[in-house]
Amino acid sequence: MHGLATAHSHAFQRALRGRTQRRATAAGSFWSWRGLMYDLAEKLDPDDVFQLSRWAFLELALGGTTAVGEFHYVHHQPDGTPYPNRLELAEAVIAAAHEVGIRLCLIRTAYVRGGYNQPLASAQIRFADTAVEDVLHDVDELQRRYSADPLITIGVAAHSIRAVPLAQVATLSGYAQESGLPFHMHLAEQRQELAECRAEYGRPPVALLADHGLLTPNLVAVHATHLEDEEVAALGAAGAMVCLCRTTERDLGDGLPRTADLLSAGVRLCVGVDSHAVSDTFEELRAVELDERSRTERRHAAAEAAELLRMGGEWGYAALGMGEAWAEDKIILNPHDPALVGLGEAWADEAAIFAASPALCKRCGWLTSGLWPKENTSNKRWRGRDTAVPSKSWDYEKKDRG
Ligand SMILES: [Zn+2]
What we know:
Structural class: alpha/beta
Strand content: 5-15%
Distance between the termini: 44 Å
CATH architecture: Alpha-Beta Barrel
Radius of gyration: 20 Å
CATH superfamily: Metal-dependent hydrolases
Largest sheet: 8 strands, parallel
Helix content: 40-55%
CATH class: Alpha Beta
Number of helices: 17
Bound molecules: zinc ion
């Protein structure tokens, strides 16, 4: 099987797995979860970012994921001052990908404000730059440092319409287009975000971008959960992409996307592990179809296995600026895995996509793509798994941050 991409990741959030599942507030929401995530983001040092990223990427790679898009938004020191090397944390993520041997698109993310008429708060000072030119300078520098690296590509992102005003979204999007880079943005994930966008601009986020010519073929709209009909059509007409992150969207109570409508409109879909609440690209892919079955009360609602595999391969890699590399990266499935036993090869794709766990993967692309010497690979794989778990405990006091 070809390699699989997860096009939207926040690797440091791997530390939150399990730890946000006890009720901490009277009414849990995306926003109460975000408060816990900010508690974590405030504490990270460069070595933490490296260790958590390596742990997250290794788990992905062992489960058959060969390429990851890191939507990287923690940039600065805890007081908001840039590190002497402005790319200190980005390079910690890149070093982790190198050690694991997974392909990485480092998506340098802009973050400007706390929200409409809201200043930066708590951990947001680590995310933010005062000038969008600083963001673009970082993108240039990342391209300069990694242009010859076969594992690394660079992307540009605006965090969200909440965190980046429209004029700066336009600057970032234009820059990415001119440079031939993917442009990612969280869009229409939460209803509160839609309400705030309507209050500021009179339009929901995707319609707003459409009005200003900002739906483009290099746009990867992350989530795109709550869309009007005109927004679905506009994404399709523009040839834009949507990255669905169903395990995280379920975890955060985001709502159900309209996957069949998006595909019918001509939108290319891909998937992302996002918060690492679960690390299973097969599950992300099958959810594109199975969650649509729940939403529509039908079967065969959006896509069959071959189309879901295309989202994991060709389209996922396209979202990361990796072109045809998906065809080079190979996953070898274990024919003795319970999910495959008793089925002929003709049904392997369906069995893998609709029924398997990451344990199905015997080997994956980073072992066979030629980037690593074959004779060392099995040792590297298992030694890496034993040593990659960070020694630091990430337990923390639960508190209501609303
Ligand atoms: Zn995200």
